[in-house]
Amino acid sequence: MTDSWRNWLPDTDIADSAATIAEHEPFIDDDPLLEIKLAVRDRARTGASRKKFLRTGGAIAAVAALIAGAAIGLTSIQNGDSHAAAPASAATTPATAAPVWCAESRSAAVVVGNGKGRTPGPGVTGPDLILNQQWQWYVARNADASRAVLAADAQAADPELARAAVAAVPAGTKHCVTITALAPEKFDVQIDEKHGDGTSAHWQQTVTTAVQDGRTVITSITAGGAA
Q: Which of 33, 35, 43, 144 is the most exposed, having the fewest neighbouring CB atoms within 10 Å of its CB?
């Protein structure tokens, strides 16, 4: 593709278009990046399908909830239900605070978080770059910026495919990254998503880094924990 994918998309929902791009991305059986390309395509498909559900099933559920709520309220009024607006008892036991999802932590072996991380530069670590890449993906929603942490010749999914997958991520998706050191400059990366509709998704990658021209950069991303 020579033009930006946004320039030739038909006037359809962005999630549908992203899935279309991912579906027609050419794959070659002996491509060493086949697994990561398929994984990124799955992310585009998953996001597009979820957006379609929210547009249809979500809207229907909302209407049904409004109707049910109105019916309950009318019944309470007709029956003279004095408990409908009763204040909560002062003796109610306070709820125990739920554990913080994706609580940030860092050790020599494992880094957990969803912060912005850092871009390539002196003293920047592999986990810093990985956090930044995923922050650009989920928070900034900028596939091109997510590639700024890659080496020029890095083995990774094609830019157009990455853009399609990022575009298909439902707005408001929360993410959590768990980075485990496998060897010097080699990391297992677990990415968990939480969506507004209560569903979740999980992705796994192996990421390698190297120092090039005094800057630490990502040199390879493979799917599913492959070596």
A: 144
